Amino acid sequence: MRRRALVVEDEVLVGMMLEEMLHELGYELAALSTHLDEALALARTAAFDVALLDINLNGRQSFPVADAVRARGLPFLFATGYGSRIVGTAYKDVPILQKPFSLDELQEALAKAGMA
Question: What is the pTM of this model?
Answer without folding.
Answer: 0.95
